[in-house]
Amino acid sequence: DSGVTQTPKHLITATGQRVTLRCSPRSGDLSVYWYQQSLDQGLQFLIQYYNGEERAKGNILERFSAQQFPDLHSELNLSSLELGDSALYFCASSEGGANTGELFFGEGSRLTVL
Amino acid sequence: AQSVSQHNHHVILSEAASLELGCNYSYGGTVNLFWYVQYPGQHLQLLLKYFSGDPLVKGIKGFEAEFIKSKFSFNLRKPSVQWSDTAEYFCAVGGYNKLIFGAGTRLAVHP
User: Fold this and answer.
1) Residues contacting B20, CB < 8 A, separation 6+
2) How far apart are the first and last CA of chain B?
């Protein structure tokens, strides 16, 4: 158990819909990262937050947005869903920035868009 | 821009065989290098990491990696694999606020 909690574990929805994925970081970790893992794209970095502020952005689509709340949990919002958005979405947390330490990953939220 | 390249997408070995997984990176500054492992149905977890110092890094479960700066490489090795090493292995480079992963290598170890 990494200490990072992601909900829901599985989600099936239709194209055009909107979903929200939730992540609770390890106790004491201020940084939260979101990654998308798909068969053809591998593990893609989406976005990072540190203590409520966006710190780094990767290959995140404009249809996707995220935020980190004062209690440090984070949500990833995916809208106008397309078939290609089907993937495993991982959240990770760390004490500081990614370059300074280990990331602790949750078990992921598997999104299926039909 | 940062990038990580893993040479092998799928590797199949018999138990007790030696393992070497290649990883090359490109990054314009000081890098921190990592290998993560994802066992079937589980989350990613850290195998080992390199920040500075001795370029030969030892990790958990008998894995080690060697940082060769001149070759921009950070290859993962294990002298003798076990069936329980069946997993997907990811090389990653850490820059400012980002951890960039390679595409991963799926390792299957047959008894």
Assistant:
1) B75, B76, B77
2) 41
Q: Is B49 on the interface with A (CB under 8 A)?
A: yes
Q: What is the pLDDT of residues B54-94, one digit of tens each?
A: 999 999 999 999 999 999 999 999 999 999 999 999 999 88
Does A25 contact B at CB distance below 8 Å? no
Q: Does B60 touch chain A (CB under 8 A)?
A: no
Could you tell me which of A2, A54, A46 has the C-alpha nearest to residue A27? A2
| Cβ separation B100–A45 shorter than 8 A | yes
Distances (CA, A) of B17 to A3, B12, B78: 34, 10, 9
Q: Token pair 């609770």 is at which residue?
A: A24
Span B10-27, pLDDT tens digits: 999 999 999 999 999 987
